[in-house]
Amino acid sequence: MTRARLKAYFETSLAGLTQPTRSDWIFALRTVSAGLIALLAAYALRLDHPQWAMMTVFIVAQPVAGMVLAKGFYRLLGTLAGGVAAIGITTIFGTGPWVLVTVLAVWIGICTFVSSLLRNPEAYGAALAGYTAMIIGLPAFGQPHLVVDLAVARCAEIILGIVCAGLTSRLILPKLASDAIISRLKRCILDLAIYAGGAFSGGDRATLIGLHRKLVADTQTLGEMRAYARLEAPSFAPRAHPVRRTIGQLLSALSAARALHSHAAPKNAALIPVRSELQVLVGELAAKPGALDDTAPWVARLDAISAKARQMPDAPVDQGDDRVGTITRLTIAADFAEALKQVLRGLDALRSPAARRQGRASRQPALVVHRDYPGAARNAVRAALATLLVAAFWLTTKWSEAAGTVILVAVVSSLFAARPDPVQVSWGFFKGTLLALPFAFLVGQIALPALPGFGWFTLFVVPILVPAALAMANPRYVGVATAFAINFLAFLSPHQAMTYAPGPFLAGSASILVGILLAIGVFIVVLPADPWLAANRIVRAMREDLARLCLHERVPRRSAFESLAYDRVNQLMPLVQNSGRKGEAVLGGGVAAVTVGLEILRLRSASQNHAIPPDAALSVANFLRGLARELLFRAPGDPQTATVAVVRQYAAGIAQRNANSDALQIAASLRIIAAAMEDFPDFFARDKG
């Protein structure tokens, strides 16, 4: 693919992000319709706060049905848990106001801690359980006998909204998560082919970087959709693990293409044919319409290229480069072909899932799943402290509208605590809320009091909420648009009899805006979040994984290492992907660490082969011990230890003393590890903190 075609494709892809698609319009109209149905049903049931039913529709609204069901399910669980907690806390501590708000703040802290350790919709449900107790318990302040009625009413309103959103998402032109995963994976494969074509042909660097970022972002979204698809259809559960492995193979292929681009060797006679065949294949894959309808021809060609790349070249062919360097580059090319082949097979597995195999092999020790306990503790302390301080202000001043401020501080400080940049997310929430205020005033305080009735309500609200829902379908504007839609309904507070009351409207609106600003201030001042601290903890865990692979007596299965290593990369992506070159270096190092781990496993397996000469096995053992020391003890900026500095000498010595293919493959693995650590030196060093 030429540079011009690569650049034109990337610019066209970016332009398409700002234009609503047919599916965006379906999502917008479906969401607004579900909200109106929920509100009408709430009116018919004479619920106390019917706006919560309609708000819930917009809170759980997602373009994909599985996302709606997942978010709705965990919203229901969180609401029930928060309601039970509110009843228990208010019943026991309701007579003492200071004790009550303190216990509620502690409960919010506990739920925020749990939420920060979880991911996807489970985290949302845990955070909701915390601030729902505040939403229910605070209005019952001084009237503990009302808390049960408030909890039941809140649950009924939210259940109604969830049911309306879930049914419409499944019945009205549904977009299923399983289909969306397949569609997005196909798009990622084609993007990977375009990137690889540009990398193999020396494409424009800036365009390649942009496409690399897009691929990383898309793979992150693909990973997040796994949980939603499992809840959407139980039949998808057996495919959840293949999705994670396929995402990992996609990243490995991306890393291999990047490595071949960074370590190009134009004069390498053995590599040129393999590289040319790969370039032709990815070019055809990207350009041919319906190329992924049948993956069998591509898999067969990739198998042939991989086999050709893994053949040991004859020594006379290696003019202009050393033989180990040639084998190293051929190994990377073979790894790219193999990874792309596995991605295509993963696509086939998603489209035509096979029955789960019986009698699985006994499990070997797996690596430890990373959970960020220090970050979770910080988030918990911050949410509890912020809620308690604002509640203390409310109790001291006895300002009635400050209760709304307390609730908003609890919501924002808990809900956004675990985001990589909570200040930015909260600020987007504030902008959407502020933008909703004049629209809610015009509709709720001027139009509806003069023209009451559900028909007029629909006429005034639909032209406002449909554009908001369209913006919710666009990843660029989803945060601000969702805040706008939710708070527009909160400010509007639709009832069957709307009255003109600007004083209470403005006072309540001000308390909400002040609460969001206070939460932002807490994020800035109280234990400010630093995504790099969380990222460094994940990186440290990845280095410890590699050290464990070097030293542990039992060698884990390749699939077990891949699964958890790619899971760590998935955790790392949202923390660093918007951090420019520094983030790209860390993320690139994370993917390179997977490559290093696989090469370590290859070395460990080879060293157990009796056909390997004893001197080669001894060199491998010495190198692995030195590598473990390097990973565990060297700090960024420190000079590399002698073990890593002489790894190329190890490889050259093994190649000189042994001409058999197994020994040469060991030398190539050593060179691949050396290249990865040289490309990302700080990633493979212990952070000084």
Automatic annotation (TrEMBL):
One of its GO terms (molecular function) is transmembrane transporter activity. The keyword Cell wall biogenesis/degradation does not apply. One of its GO terms (cellular component) is plasma membrane. Keywords: Cell membrane, Membrane, Transmembrane, Transmembrane helix, Transport. Pfam families: FUSC (PF04632). This is Fusaric acid resistance protein. Its main location: membrane. It is a multi-pass membrane protein. It is found in: Cell membrane. It comes from Rhizobium loti.
